[in-house]
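User: I've been trying to design a sequence by hand for this structure and keep getting stuck. Would you show me what you'd pick, starting by listing the structure so we're on the same page?

Assistant: Good idea, let's start from the same input. This is the structure you sent:
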């Protein structure tokens, strides 16, 4: 599989990745370890919460999203990392039994002024459930090596 460099990221839709099936067991296991709020652990407590049923942690969804990004394109990208996430919004809860898909769009691609051997690619990621409902949106830049820099 060919490595992706800065020049390979054109504005527009990059791809749809997944689906990734989520089970109740993994929702509870992630919550027990990292976000032990009742709506992520206990069906009865979750039914009384504003989520009205067992739902995965937003941080769990971010972890799933990162894995889907890696498997979809970052794992074969000349990525040098990311300076962070610019925006993150949880739009709806994800539920056990959901099949999560991830749509990725290139919003911007520009050569770095301070490091011209690299480019900065701004991605918008939207994670959706089985019904196509958007669950999470995130915008994040990734620093990517330029093809010419890799060759020379």
């Amino acid at each position: 599989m060919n490595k992706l460099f800065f020049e390979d990221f054109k504005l527009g839709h990059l791809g749809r990745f997944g689906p990734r099936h989520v089970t109740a067991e993994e929702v509870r296991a992630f919550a027990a370890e990292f976000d032990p709020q009742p709506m992520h652990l206990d069906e009865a407590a979750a039914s009384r919460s504003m989520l009205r049923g067992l739902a995965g942690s937003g941080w769990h969804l971010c972890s799933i999203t990162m894995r889907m990004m890696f498997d979809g394109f970052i794992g074969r990208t000349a990525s040098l990392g990311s300076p962070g996430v610019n925006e993150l919004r949880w739009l709806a809860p994800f539920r056990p039994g959901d099949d999560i898909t991830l749509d990725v769009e290139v919003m911007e691609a520009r050569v770095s002024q301070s490091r011209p051997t690299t480019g900065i690619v701004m991605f918008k990621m939207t994670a959706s459930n089985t019904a196509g409902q958007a669950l999470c949106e995130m915008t994040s830049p990734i620093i990517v090596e330029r093809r010419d820099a890799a060759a020379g």
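That's my pick for every position. To get oriented when you compare it with your attempt: The chain has five helices and six strands. The CA atoms of residues 38 and 126 lie 26 Å apart.
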